[in-house]
């Protein structure tokens, strides 16, 4: 058996050839990023050399994803644990595959050197689909090559480097091993490469990390447009390929006419009260559905249901509680835009769409203009779920994650720092902030696999679903947080908002298994010492996108602002909530209308018919007609403003 690991022996080995060819493509992607910036510096003013390096280095993660996707077949065929992969014909085919696929990817990058000037975005799948309907694609492409011949020259040079690298990095004859040993070694190596591949395309190996999307580029930027330096074009195409893009709608002649039914423009009161510089503290609780809370469910189990959140039950007695309260999405990544920017998740989570570089409304940015410091706390590994990137995009000044906590002894091993310890850290850190401040925290512990710390085993009721025990744990952590916060000087000068990211993924009771119950979450406003903020409102609907305008209304914010939600403290003219569950769901008072984009498919009185058994479609025209106009106006405002980058009060 002749098997050596010396450098000379490794030269020409198939896995070494694979590694260096992939590394060369990575280098070419970096060159493309530098050239993209060089061709478009006018669009990225005031970028220092250090910040440019930061943007370039941040792009490596996105290049890895794109390069792995582009070369998925090449990598697989190079790694199969069979001896036929050393045949000359097989390797010749792989040479062509490597050059052709990567040439196309590099072409996409090169075309955006110029095309970016016209769209101010990297090319996405939707743009490619748009071009696919052109009958004159040949002339368009030929004209592009003629006008921007120097880009074609750059592309040809980069492709020639690919050809040259395939000539230099050639696979030699296989090592002299018995077939069984060859198969065993190459199978193990293939398994390792598969693991590395999965981690590469996800953007990391931590359990809590979701596959990275376009919005993750926000982690490296100072301005949203800089995301396109960090990103590469193949990544943008791949990540939007399966995303349903928005199509312009025209239920009304224009936004002005739609605005007569529903408008996201908010004006200050005609009689303006002095601004109240109270601290704003928002807690977003993982999977915190209404089903968990005893106060909402006195009708369950013949009136004996107590729920799993006794502290929340007690806090509700001192809070403003709107009885009918809803999430605007069904995923964690839909909650933060809903709560902090008043942008709901409609059809797709906003942070995974290509519109995250739009000018966005932002509660943190608005409050910063009033002298607030702003922060966001999430006990998961930094970068998890793209939160750090998105809150950076919307102007949050300081992010506190697992890195800043800096004590892995309190790490749950999967999702992040246990809620109790991290909430205490939150309270202590806020005590160092100068008032007024705004701070948001997203909990982690009430998440599959629903573990609690060993010291709490058996302390909290388990119930029929495993999530209930973790709800009891986080409720207790919240009790300890408020006990700590009450001792601090900023406590009484604070408005607290407690809500959920979404309802629990699985529900036990039938009324929480419907299209209404799936989105039913608590939303509490608690202002210590303010008697006007105590009571139960069974009339006004509230949703996550109402938090931003309601907080601004409570503080007497004195300037116009943009928000899809409403100020619930202002007797809003339209008593609505909205979410998307395969169809648009439009709530108005006691009714929910389900609209598929063209017609109404359902109308229910969800407050009386909580199992949604009695479809009232076409039976109540006086109710259905106005609600149809309202949802059409909302969809037109949402969609067309998203497409046209008009999510602010300024043109």
UniProtKB/TrEMBL annotation:
<feature type="transmembrane region" description="Helical">
    <location>
        <begin position="145"/>
        <end position="165"/>
    </location>
</feature>
<keyword id="KW-0472">Membrane</keyword>
<dbReference type="InterPro" id="IPR050448">
    <property type="entry name" value="OpgB/LTA_synthase_biosynth"/>
</dbReference>
<feature type="transmembrane region" description="Helical">
    <location>
        <begin position="96"/>
        <end position="116"/>
    </location>
</feature>
<dbReference type="InterPro" id="IPR012160">
    <property type="entry name" value="LtaS-like"/>
</dbReference>
<feature type="transmembrane region" description="Helical">
    <location>
        <begin position="21"/>
        <end position="44"/>
    </location>
</feature>
<keyword id="KW-1003">Cell membrane</keyword>
<feature type="domain" description="Sulfatase N-terminal">
    <location>
        <begin position="278"/>
        <end position="556"/>
    </location>
</feature>
<keyword id="KW-0812">Transmembrane</keyword>
<keyword id="KW-1133">Transmembrane helix</keyword>
<feature type="transmembrane region" description="Helical">
    <location>
        <begin position="177"/>
        <end position="198"/>
    </location>
</feature>
<feature type="transmembrane region" description="Helical">
    <location>
        <begin position="64"/>
        <end position="84"/>
    </location>
</feature>
<dbReference type="InterPro" id="IPR000917">
    <property type="entry name" value="Sulfatase_N"/>
</dbReference>
<dbReference type="InterPro" id="IPR017850">
    <property type="entry name" value="Alkaline_phosphatase_core_sf"/>
</dbReference>
<dbReference type="Pfam" id="PF00884">
    <property type="entry name" value="Sulfatase"/>
</dbReference>
<protein>
    <submittedName>
        <fullName>Sulfatase-like hydrolase/transferase</fullName>
    </submittedName>
</protein>
């Amino acid at each position: 058996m002749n098997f050596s690991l010396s450098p000379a022996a490794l030269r020409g080995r198939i896995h070494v050839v694979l590694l260096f060819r992939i590394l060369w493509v990575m280098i070419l992607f970096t060159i493309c990023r530098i050239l993209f910036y060089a061709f478009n510096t006018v669009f990225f003013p005031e970028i220092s050399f250090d910040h440019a390096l930061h943007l370039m280095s941040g792009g490596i993660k996105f290049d890895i994803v794109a390069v792995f996707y582009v070369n998925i077949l090449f990598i697989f065929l190079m790694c199969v644990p069979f001896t036929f992969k050393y045949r000359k014909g097989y390797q010749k085919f792989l040479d062509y595959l490597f050059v052709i696929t990567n040439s196309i990817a590099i072409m996409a990058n090169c075309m955006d050197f110029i095309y970016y000037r016209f769209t101010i975005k990297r090319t996405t799948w939707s743009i490619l689909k748009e071009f696919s309907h052109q009958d004159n694609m040949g002339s368009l492409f030929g004209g592009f090559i003629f006008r921007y011949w120097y880009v074609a020259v750059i592309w040809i040079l980069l492709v020639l480097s690919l050809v040259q690298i395939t000539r230099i990095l050639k696979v030699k004859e296989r090592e002299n091993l018995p077939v069984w040993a060859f198969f065993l070694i190459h199978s193990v190596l293939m398994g390792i490469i598969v693991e590395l591949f999965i981690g590469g395309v996800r953007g990391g190996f931590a359990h809590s990390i979701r596959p990275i999307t376009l919005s993750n580029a926000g982690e490296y930027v100072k301005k949203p447009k800089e995301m396109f330096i960090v990103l590469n074009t193949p990544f943008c195409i791949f990540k939007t390929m399966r995303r349903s893009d928005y199509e312009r709608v025209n239920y009304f002649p224009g936004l002005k006419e739609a605005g007569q039914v529903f408008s996201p423009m908010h004006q200050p009161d005609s009689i303006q009260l002095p601004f109240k510089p109270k601290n704003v503290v928002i807690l977003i609780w993982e999977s915190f559905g209404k089903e968990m809370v005893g106060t909402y469910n006195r009708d369950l189990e013949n009136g004996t249901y107590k729920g799993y959140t006794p502290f929340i039950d007690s806090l509700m007695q001192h809070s403003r509680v709107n009885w009918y309260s809803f999430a605007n999405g069904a995923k964690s990544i839909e909650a933060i835009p809903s709560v902090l920017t008043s942008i709901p998740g409609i059809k797709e989570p906003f942070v995974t769409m290509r519109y995250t570089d739009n000018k966005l409304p932002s509660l943190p940015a608005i409050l910063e203009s009033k002298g607030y410091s702003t922060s966001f706390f999430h006990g998961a590994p930094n970068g998890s779920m793209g939160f750090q990137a998105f809150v950076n995009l919307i102007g949050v000044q300081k992010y506190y994650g697992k890195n800043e906590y800096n004590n892995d002894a309190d790490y749950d091993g999967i999702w992040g720092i246990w809620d109790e310890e991290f909430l205490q850290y939150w309270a202590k850190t806020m005590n160092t902030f100068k008032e007024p401040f705004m701070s948001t925290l997203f909990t982690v512990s009430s998440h599959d696999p629903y573990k609690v710390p060993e010291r709490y085993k058996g302390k909290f009721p388990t119930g029929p679903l495993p999530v209930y025990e973790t709800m009891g744990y986080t409720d207790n952590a919240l009790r300890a947080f408020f006990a700590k916060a009450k001792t601090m000087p900023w406590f009484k000068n604070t408005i607290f908002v407690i809500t959920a990211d979404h309802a629990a993924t699985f529900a036990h009771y039938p009324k929480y298994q419907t299209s209404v119950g799936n989105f039913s979450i608590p939303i509490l406003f608690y202002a210590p010492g303010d008697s006007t903020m105590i009571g139960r409102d069974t009339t006004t609907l509230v949703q996550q996108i109402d938090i931003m305008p309601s907080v601004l209304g409570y503080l007497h914010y004195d300037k116009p602002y943009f928000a899809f939600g409403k100020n619930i403290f202002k007797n809003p003219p339209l008593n609505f909530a909205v979410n998307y569950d395969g169809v648009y769901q439009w709530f108005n008072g006691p009714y929910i209308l389900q609209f598929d984009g063209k017609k109404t498919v359902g109308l229910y009185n969800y407050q009386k018919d909580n199992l949604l058994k009695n479809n009232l479609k076409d039976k109540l025209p006086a109710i259905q007609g106005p609600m149809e106009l309202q949802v059409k106006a909302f969809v037109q405002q949402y969609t067309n403003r998203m497409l046209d980058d008009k999510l602010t009060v300024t043109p």
